[in-house]
Amino acid sequence: MGTGCSTGLSAPWSNSYPLKILLVGKQSSGKTFLLYSWKYGIDTIMSVEPTKHFNVDTITTASERKILVYDLAGNIGYRLRPFLDGTEGVVYMIHVGEPGDSIFKEEEESIKQLILERDLESTPFLFVIRGDPESSKGVSQDLTERLQATLEGKQWDIMCLQDYSQEDADLVLQVLEKMLSRRT
Ligand SMILES: Nc1nc2c(ncn2[C@@H]2O[C@H](COP(=O)(O)OP(=O)(O)OP(=O)(O)O)[C@@H](O)[C@H]2O)c(=O)[nH]1
Ligand SMILES: [Mg+2]
């Protein structure tokens, strides 16, 4: 009694404690660009270099919640595993180049493996499809069908993001925050 330390369970503490999320997806899918859109705003992004291993940055949402974003290199492979522990949300990015593009079987399998990781058992997943609206919509429907069984019982969502759209980037963050707040 009387040490002056709080239990750590009060609302202000939990609001300021950053929630850890992973930003994953293939190389050049747009992960770092999305992180910079959240952190600095799209208009300030001059160029983005391919990520070596990972970037980590804290962002603050419109409602002042802090999120610790681990932006992992698309070629991270097995080095991803040490990042899983303590993850409160996963954003999986996909870039759709041409109309009619679809997800290769290999990527579908690696997404399924990630969803089934024990450390991510109760972790929400947000899929973000970047590309023109028509192509993204097709990929979004296709992916939903292909992953439905694996995602059974999980909290997840899927949304599309157009290039150079701060509005879309902000919306992704809003949806992510809503998913995270359902867990906390
Ligand atoms: N205009 C526009 N370009 C984007 C967007 N997202 C990504 N790009 C471009 O796509 C390329 C790859 O983006 P990155 O953010 O580096 O992709 P990444 O997923 O972080 O790639 P790795 O770090 O190699 O895994 C860059 O040239 C970006 O400028 C976007 O929302 N709008
Ligand atoms: Mg990157």
Automatic annotation (TrEMBL):
The keyword Metal-binding applies. GTP binds at G25, K26, Q27, S28, S29, G30, K31, T32, G74. SUPFAM superfamilies: P-loop containing nucleoside triphosphate hydrolases (SSF52540). Gene3D superfamilies: P-loop containing nucleotide triphosphate hydrolases. It comes from the Eukaryota. Mg(2+) binds at T32, T51. GO terms for molecular function: GTP binding; GTPase activity; metal ion binding. InterPro entries: P-loop_NTPase, Small_GTPase_ARF/SAR. Keywords: GTP-binding, Magnesium, Metal-binding, Nucleotide-binding. The keyword Zinc-finger does not apply. This is Uncharacterized protein. It comes from Elysia crispata.
